[in-house]
Amino acid sequence: MIEVDARPFVFSFDPATTALVVIDMQRDFVEPGGFGETLGNDVSRLGAIVPTVARLLALARARGWTVVHTRESHDPTLCDCPPAKRGRGAPSLRIGDVGPMGRILVRGEPGAAIVDAVAPIDGEIVIDKPGKGAFYATALGDVLRLKEITHLIFAGVTTEVCVQTTMREANDRGYDCLLIEDATESYFPDFKRAAIEMIVAQGAIVGWAAPLAALEAAVATKGA
Ligand code: TIU
Questions:
Q1: How far does residue 174's CA lie from ligand 1's centre (Å)?
Q2: Can you tell me the mean pLDDT for 57-83?
Q3: How far apart are CA 14 and CA 7, in angstroms?
Q4: Ligand 1 pocket, 20 CB below 6 A?
Q5: Rounded Cα distance, 177 and 135, in Å
Q6: Is 64 helix (H, G, I), strand (E, B) or coil?
Q7: Which of 28, 162, 176, 177 is the catalytic position?
Q8: Which ligand 1 atom sits nearest the alpha carbon of residue 162?
Q9: What is the mean pLDDT of the chain?
Q10: Test site for ligand 1: of 158, 159, 164, 190, most ligand atoms within 8 A of the Cβ
Q11: Which pLDDT belongs to residue 50?
């Protein structure tokens, strides 16, 4: 077992039954001209975590851990995009509209791709999801069950939207979940802070949180 110095207390996991889940590190959220920016956000904060996510992926890959990437994305027909989702807010471009990186949040378009520095490699699982949570309307639950995964380590964007939603879905399904604090980010620093506090409150009501250095130190201690 690997024991990570986490909040609110130690997070213990066996790498054989653990998956790293990297949420929505897509150009549409991280780069100018995509979905995040059309919603009125300054996307520069999100780009800043790319090197940390890359370091986390390197750790997982070096040890052969299961790696899952998710992409918030829709079928080109938008048959899986609820009108309520497409119509929400007052974005400059809506889901499916043509922007500088192709059609916003549409599968196969440049903007829906994961940024190069943390892109999936052969053998890693990629889940396209139409919602904020990665379990809704996807095969993620079945994939994890087949691999007998019981513990999930989370990174990605944005902390209080797709990451928190997926952690809550996972928590309700019985997974123990650790969020790597410096490998996740929000357009709103206060929301990131609050989301992490909500996750670890009440004795890990949703899960655990720790910086990447704590995971690296725990792994080094075990030589795992
Ligand atoms: N808007 C926002 O903060 N996030 C999203 O719409 N999706 C994800 O978090 N991936």
A1: 24
A2: 98
A3: 18
A4: no
A5: 14
A6: coil
A7: 162
A8: 9
A9: 97
A10: 158
A11: 98
Count, residues in the chain: 224
The CA-atom distances, in angstroms, between 97 and each of 41, 82, 137 are 18, 15, 23
CA distances from 72 to 52, 65, 103, 134, 159 (A): 21, 23, 13, 8, 14
Looking at the chain, the whole-number percentage of residues with pLDDT higher than 70 is 99
Q: Which residue has the tokens 């087949």?
A: 146
Catalytic residue among 28, 81, 128, 129: 129
* Span 166-205, pLDDT tens digits: 999 999 999 999 999 999 999 999 999 999 999 999 999 9
Q: Tokens 């943390």: give the residue.
A: 118
Secondary-structure percent of the chain, ordered helix, strand, coil, rounded to 5: 40, 25, 35
Distance 29 CA to ligand 1 centre (A): 7
Q: How far apart are CA 36 and CA 95, in angstroms?
A: 11
